[in-house]
């Protein structure tokens, strides 16, 4: 059905590019391939086509994504939680998945907004929808495993500019003193290539580093709660504009967690797998002695406690948000809030209801 969109396929240096009459531009690119914005002549709508490189592991991930998307679509009749798949086809060994066209990712919106935070009421609405999507997936026994701002898209690209007066003598006429706020809080989750069904033997590494749960790093096995940890990290990032754990190394990552959230439980540290034993010393995290550099130690020491971090950026609802985040970011996976529980948290009631 969609093969007419693709006119010529060119492959060079392991990168794929397409030339077609109805291609409007490139929307994104990654190790998997690229995403193109195209006009669907039959449906008379703009679509996004994810074109996956013809390499075995990427093809396999793409077929997993197709299966998950079809399963989600069969249960999400309103189509308001996850990105909707229109079709898919295999074009010269390249899996091509056709999606509804959405707006920018939360990460791209933050980046173009100079990493300035979202208003707390918008964080509340985005958080509610994200948890509803996670709850929906978990009810179907699916674990996303790669939740992050890059994989959450605003439905609409429209935004307004509002003045930002915090701590500056600049006037609102200064363009850098305005920040963008999405017109609509509606979001959808994307990228289901790493999604898995719940099993007993899940021990391999999942999640993008900044959003990776402690049980994954420590090799303790993981399940649904790893998605919940990622949601907690995402909500903090939306409130502050920056990733909570900006690191690329396991020991530093664990030390950052302890700095922000307090000590890791001894019972978890005693059960670490052989790959994580090198991060321990006498039953505790080998920090700062095991640090790779003084810069690494400084990166950890500059982090505030979670409650202080939130209070620096949130004017109202800070107490409820801190309490919610403490539930989402509990070290012990079995003690972490489930998505359905989190949705009943007072943070999602909203100030306007509490005041009435």
Descriptive notes:
- The protein is α+β, with helices and mostly antiparallel strands and 356 residues long.
- It has two domains: 3-100, 2-Layer Sandwich (Phosphorylase Kinase, domain 1); 106-355, Transferase(Phosphotransferase) domain 1 (Transferase(Phosphotransferase), domain 1, Orthogonal Bundle), CATH 1.10.510.
- It is 34% helix and 20% strand.
- The protein is built from twelve helices and 15 strands.
- A five-stranded antiparallel β-sheet has the order 3-4-5-7-6, with helices on one face.
- A hairpin with a 4-residue loop joins β4 (33-40) and β5.
- α3 runs antiparallel to α5, α5 runs antiparallel to α10 (318-328) and α6 (250-261) packs parallel to α8.
- The longest helix has 20 residues, at 56-75.
- The termini are far apart.
- The relative contact order is 0.10.
- The model is unreliable at 7-21 (pLDDT under 50).
Short summary:
By secondary structure, the protein is an alpha+beta fold. It has helices spanning 56-75, 106-112, 120-139, 214-217, 225-240, 250-261, 266-269, 294-301, 306-313, 318-328, 339-343, 351-355, and strands at residues 8-12, 15-19, 23-30, 33-40, 45-52, 85-91, 94-100, 142-143, 152-154, 159-163, 178-182, 187-189, 196-197, 280-281, 284-285.
